[in-house]
Input
Amino acid sequence: EIVLTQSPATLSLSPGERATLSCRASQSVSSYLAWYQQKPGRAPRLLIYGASNRATGIPPRFSGSGSGTDFTLTISSLEPEDFALYYCQQRSNWPPVTFGGGTKVQIK
Amino acid sequence: QVRLVESGGDVVQPGGSLRLSCAASGLSFNIYGMHWVRQAPGKGLEWLAFIRYDGSNKYYADSVKGRFTISRDNSNNKMDLQMNSLRVEDTAVYYCATDLGGYFDWGYFDSWGQGTLVTVSS
Output
């Protein structure tokens, strides 16, 4: 099973700042990686799939990059509604699908 | 607008059974693969099971294989998860989600329901 490690666990930033979230895979997942946003008490929302493709309705301030084992989610300028939990997920040679442990983006 | 509504969550004793349902609307249900994903209280996300758009293929996580069974009824736009031999560690919010790939099994989760809480406790 492929293990995804997200860092940092918590990111403290101010609105307008740039957020850089990392996801590292225990073995190559090619570009089969997605990012999700989750707010308290809500279901996750797909942001990015295929490492760099924005899902429908996702604003361009969200971007994904990387391939192989190292991936990054960048939020170019944090809006108040972006403070949330973010998960990466891989589907290389699934099943199984696996998720990272999450990064919490909180207001500084 | 896609809407997924889970139901069936409850409090059940260890060793018991429960059946969850996911009702879909606003999409052509019969062309989408469907997943179940759960989240234990204060924990991360765990994929559980997938069923292909026509029900021809089913995949399970090792943690639930042999205990949980996924099924679907395309005529009624519904998917179920039969959960047997429940354990305390199965306590979680259970979400259903559509596969992004439609006919193709992409393994990404596009639309999600609001979740239903399953509590396994004596």
Notes: The radius of gyration of chain B is 13 Å. The mean pLDDT of chain B is 97.
